[in-house]
Amino acid sequence: MSTNNNNQEAAKTREEYKKTSSSKPEKVRRRRIRIRLIPIWLRIIIVAVLIFLSISAGAAVGYGVLGNGQPKDVFKKSTWTHIVDLIEKE
């Protein structure tokens, strides 16, 4: 009977060895597949639009509040030609 008992223990040991050797280590992280909700090309367009809006809003606030003018006048061509003339005039 002791031979049968030893075989059973050896079989358990082999089965445990197979389970541990075939399984992945516990600390190995799985690589997650990232699905982007917003594509990269759309992100670039959104960033460009936000930059344009922030520059426009900053110019309107700067011209209207700091320059004591009308904020909507910043979008007129005559305002910018006047500013360029002031800068280029020596």
UniProtKB/TrEMBL annotation:
Keywords: DNA-directed RNA polymerase, Membrane, Transcription, Transmembrane, Transmembrane helix. Residues 1-10 have a biased composition (Polar residues). Signal peptide: none annotated. The chain crosses the membrane at residues 40-66. InterPro entries: RNApol_su_b/EpuA. Coiled coil: none annotated. Pfam families: EpuA. Residues 1-28 are annotated as: Disordered. GO terms for cellular component: DNA-directed RNA polymerase complex. The lineage of its organism: Bacteria, Bacillati, Bacillota, Bacilli, Bacillales. This is DNA-directed RNA polymerase subunit beta.
